[in-house]
């Protein structure tokens, strides 16, 4: 009878925990060349329709900016706002353009931030002397949902990677299926899905290591967690059973 008690105790303990291999990231990191892709995986974000852009134009004489900015009190457009320092917010329309006062339509769809700044600088140089242009994408975000809860992560770094996003969202739980995350990416009106395996260090060389605007990351619960006694209402039963078996094994001959 005592042997049966020990067997039941071992069974409960095994049922209530996961092995290190179930939760350890990058298990083959010693066998993977992390520089295989070099830094070629870092692709500067390409602007898309619907992107909300903050454009800051600086010149020596700020009065010269007046024709190129919109006064909040007189503006009737919902897509353009500005202040007196020449900071203006524009939304790229469905045709890939923004509409600047005095200049007209400027096509920015598909351009990187660097290319867009060069284009804007060239346009402003037709009217202003030595303009300095800065551009920021305001709505760069990634959605994380599933086993870790749900969160929209606002991205400040254009070269942010999936590990940064997961950390920002609170990291994965012990119950998460770390070798079977789903990433859905939308580019050029097409959706592509990727399976992300955090156990595999080859992740660093994958094209989806660096996140892009509007990526969706779904964290699935592991199969073991859905069956485990760790989940309510089985947790209490598992604890009581474990305690009872332990007492029996220690005090009853």
Automatic annotation (TrEMBL):
<keyword id="KW-0812">Transmembrane</keyword>
<dbReference type="InterPro" id="IPR049712">
    <property type="entry name" value="Poly_export"/>
</dbReference>
<keyword id="KW-0472">Membrane</keyword>
<keyword id="KW-0732">Signal</keyword>
<keyword id="KW-1133">Transmembrane helix</keyword>
<dbReference type="InterPro" id="IPR003715">
    <property type="entry name" value="Poly_export_N"/>
</dbReference>
<dbReference type="Pfam" id="PF02563">
    <property type="entry name" value="Poly_export"/>
</dbReference>
<dbReference type="GO" id="GO:0015159">
    <property type="term" value="F:polysaccharide transmembrane transporter activity"/>
</dbReference>
<feature type="transmembrane region" description="Helical">
    <location>
        <begin position="234"/>
        <end position="252"/>
    </location>
</feature>
<protein>
    <recommendedName>
        <fullName>Polysaccharide export protein N-terminal domain-containing protein</fullName>
    </recommendedName>
</protein>
<feature type="domain" description="Polysaccharide export protein N-terminal">
    <location>
        <begin position="43"/>
        <end position="137"/>
    </location>
</feature>
């Amino acid at each position: 009878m005592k042997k049966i008690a020990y067997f039941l105790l071992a069974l409960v303990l095994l049922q209530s925990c996961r092995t290190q291999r179930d939760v350890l990231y990058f298990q083959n990191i010693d066998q993977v060349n992390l520089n295989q892709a070099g830094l070629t995986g870092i692709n500067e974000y390409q602007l898309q329709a619907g992107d909300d852009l903050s454009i800051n134009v600086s010149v020596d004489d700020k009065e010269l900016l007046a024709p190129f900015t919109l006064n909040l009190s007189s503006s009737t457009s919902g897509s353009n706002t500005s202040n007196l320092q020449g900071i203006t917010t524009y939304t790229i329309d469905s045709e890939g353009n923004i509409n600047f006062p005095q200049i007209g339509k400027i096509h920015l769809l598909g351009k990187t931030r660097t290319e867009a700044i060069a284009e804007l600088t060239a346009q402003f140089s037709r009217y202003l002397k030595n303009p300095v242009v800065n551009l920021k994408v305001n709505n760069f975000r990634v959605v994380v949902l599933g086993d870790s809860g749900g969160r929209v992560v606002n991205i400040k770094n254009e070269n942010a990677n999936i590990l940064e996003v997961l950390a920002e969202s609170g990291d994965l739980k012990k119950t998460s299926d770390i070798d079977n995350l789903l990433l859905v990416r939308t580019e050029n009106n097409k959706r592509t899905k990727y399976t992300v395996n955090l156990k595999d260090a080859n992740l660093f060389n994958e094209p989806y290591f660096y996140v892009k605007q509007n990526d969706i990351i779904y964290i699935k619960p592991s199969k073991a967690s859905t069956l485990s006694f760790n989940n309510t209402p089985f947790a209490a039963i598992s604890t009581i059973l474990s305690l009872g078996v332990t007492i029996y094994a220690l005090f009853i001959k």
